[in-house]
Design goal:
Largest sheet: 3 strands, antiparallel
Radius of gyration: 19 Å
Number of strands: 3
Shape: globular
Strand order of the largest sheet: 1-2-3
Order of helices and strands: HHHHHEHEEH
């Protein structure tokens, strides 16, 4: 079995069992309704704080998937700043700020098409210039039979470089399949 979902045959042809998923979705909707009711009871200021906490938790969990451990204070500060709330004046962590930016864009603009430009914007936010970067450009994806991207991994060992290769046109083709 290929290690990446996008390498599996028919990966975009989703299948599910309605009998199993409807029970879980029903329970989730009930909990969602209870949560939304509680947030509404809190009022605007506390509702904004709840929004900060929810997005901060999502940011922490997303980073954990990649093996990253983030400073919760920096995450909360970045989320608050991005939502236009007081941020506590903590120093800006570019990686945290980039991840928060991507998550906000993905959740606020979930109904907009995923385009190459949007994907490049996410890439730029997640991998700002410097040692934590992806060495890749739009022209590389258009010119080469196989596009080579080198991920310079952040962390203790800044010399870790991981080559990633995608067949020419793969990203563009996958975007068209999904949207």
């Amino acid at each position: 079995m290929p290690p990446y979902i996008w390498e599996r045959t028919g990966w975009t042809q989703f299948r599910w069992n309605n009998d199993k998923i409807l029970v879980i979705l029903g329970e989730c909707r009930l909990l969602q309704g209870k949560l939304l009711g509680r947030v509404a009871d809190l009022g605007f200021d506390l509702g904004s704080q709840a929004q900060v906490e929810i997005l901060a938790e999502e940011t922490m969990k997303t980073a954990a998937i990649e093996g990253e451990s983030l400073d919760m204070k920096a995450v909360r500060s970045s989320v608050a700043r991005r939502l236009g709330l007081p941020s506590g004046g903590l120093r800006v962590d570019r990686y945290v700020d980039g991840l928060v930016s991507v998550l906000l864009d993905a959740t606020r603009n979930y109904d907009k098409p995923l385009t190459e430009d949007r994907l490049y914007g996410w890439q730029a936010a997640l991998f700002p210039t410097g040692t934590e970067s992806v060495i890749c450009g739009k022209k590389q994806w258009n010119r080469h039979a196989v596009s080579s991207i080198f991920l310079v991994a952040p962390g203790a060992s800044r010399s870790s470089i991981f080559p990633l290769s995608f067949p020419n046109g793969l990203i563009r083709a996958r975007i068209k399949i999904l949207w």
